[in-house]
Amino acid sequence: MLFDFEALPKKDRYKLVVSTVVPRPIAWTVTQDAAGRTNAAPFSFFNVFSNDPVVVGIGVGARGMGGEEVADMKDTMDNIRATGEFTVCLVSEELAEAMNVTAADYPAGVDEIAMAGLTTAPSAKIRTPRIAESPVALECRLWQAIPIGTHHLVLGEVLAVHVREECMLDMDRLYVDTPKLNLVGRLHGGGWYARTTDRFDMPRVTPEGVEARRRG
């Protein structure tokens, strides 16, 4: 089936994209306004795009098939512009319901972290706090915000990362026990998510190995 995006309304383009680009990691993004009030909102248009410097990208903008703008997204973008910083916390399965609570469209000024029964912890290099219960948190400084239609692609340079101590296999060699993080990803529809517990190992091949397999 061919779907011409130039001929489709945005709600249908959204439906096709989020149903096929899966699973998507979740950026549980914490920001503060100029007065120090904290906002938290999850975004699944998210990934890492560079390792020198380490830069992550988050799509912040209209949500849902209807593309309506909601308060948490507007607050996130306004706060990032005001302070130039944010934290990205990753979501474990144990925190999935709390993350979902913070996704609700609360009125401005409501502390989503408190509503979810969570707490904050201070960051090391920026003023914006992180979600203390999250197994991984990235401290980010705004690199660039690129307007894309109703969205902004927010690029953030990662200045520091917090990893829960019991999720480190070897501190000296910086080996993370990734399965122990028990992270979840976003799938399709109104509420589908994926666990990262179903994995398979496929070592990278060499051109010589591919050729040997073809011959043999």
Please characterize this protein's 3D structure.
This protein is an alpha+beta fold and 216 residues long. Helices cover 22% and strands 34% of the residues. It has helices spanning 10-20, 71-83, 96-102, 112-115, 178-181, 207-215, and strands at residues 24-25, 27-32, 38-43, 46-51, 54-60, 85-89, 120-121, 130-131, 136-148, 151-163, 168-170, 175-176, 184-186, 193-195. The strands form 4 sheets. The protein has a 7-stranded antiparallel beta sheet with strand order 3-2-6-9-10-5-4. A hairpin with a 2-residue loop joins strand 9 and strand 10 (151-163). The longest helix has 13 residues, at 71-83. The chain is globular. The model has no long low-confidence stretch (mean pLDDT 93).
Characteristic key phrases:
three-stranded antiparallel β-sheet; alpha+beta; globular; 216 residues; 14 strands
Q: How many alpha or pi helices?
A: 6
General form = globular
Compute the CA-based radius of gyration: 19 Å
Strand-residue proportion: 25-35%
Determine the structural class based on helices, strands and strand pairing: alpha+beta
Mean pLDDT: 93
**Low-confidence region ranges:** none
Considering DSSP H and I runs of 4 or more, what fraction of the residues is helical?
10-25%
Oligomer: single chain
How many β-strand runs?
14
Report the biggest beta sheet as strand number plus sense, adding barrel if it closes: 7 strands, antiparallel
Widest sheet: strand ordering:
3-2-6-9-10-5-4
Span between termini:
36 Å
